[in-house]
Amino acid sequence: MPPTLKNVAISVDAGIALVKYNRPKNANALNGGTMQDLFTAFTWALNDANVKVVVLTGEGKFFSVGMDLVDFPANGPILSDDGIDILR
Q1: Would you kindly state where each structural domain of the chain is located, as residue ranges?
Q2: In what order do the strands lie in the sheet with 16-21?
Q3: How many CA atoms are closer than 13 Å to the CA of 1, on its beta-carbon side?
Q4: In sequence order, which residues have a C-beta less than 8 Å from that of residue 57 and are 6 or more positions away?
Q5: Widest distance between CA atoms in the chain
Q6: Contact, 78 vs 55, CB < 8 A?
Q7: CATH match of 8-87 with 3.90.226.10
Q8: Please, which residues bridge with residue 67 across strands?
Q9: Backbone phi, then psi, for 81, in 5-degree steps?
Q10: What's the CA gap between 15 and 32, in Å, rounded?
Q11: Could you tell me the CA-to-CA distances from 78 to 11, 23, 31, 64, 86 in Å, in that order?
Q12: pLDDT tens track of the chain, all 88 residues?
């Protein structure tokens, strides 16, 4: 059973895990929460023996517009230390 996440939706059918960015109001922009959810989703898929393929897509009109620049402070780092840790 896939985890329930806030920013990413996951469904599984016949060994195919559909991982979907789920922030259509923000054009599926990537923020810290989305990056953490992606990490959780991919870790789950890697450890679930029933998952053979992972397909990454986006909800709504856009796949993703990229990083959510509104989510970061104007005078701070472009990517927070937490964000860097998630990407590692």
Answers
A1: 8-87
A2: 8-13, 16-21, 53-58
A3: 2
A4: 18, 19, 20, 21, 63
A5: 47
A6: no
A7: yes
A8: 30
A9: -60, -40
A10: 28
A11: 32, 20, 11, 18, 14
A12: 899 999 999 999 999 999 999 999 999 999 888 989 999 999 999 999 999 999 999 999 999 998 887 776 666 556 667 767 776 7
CA 3, CA 61: separation in Å to the nearest integer?
Answer: 24
pTM of the model: 0.81
**How far is residue 82's CA from residue 36's CA, in Å, rounded to a whole number?**
9
Residue 69: what residue type? L
Question: 68: which DSSP letter?
Answer: -
Query: Are residues 3 and 41 in contact, defined by beta-carbon separation less than 8 angstroms?
Result: yes
CA distance 18 to 55: 5
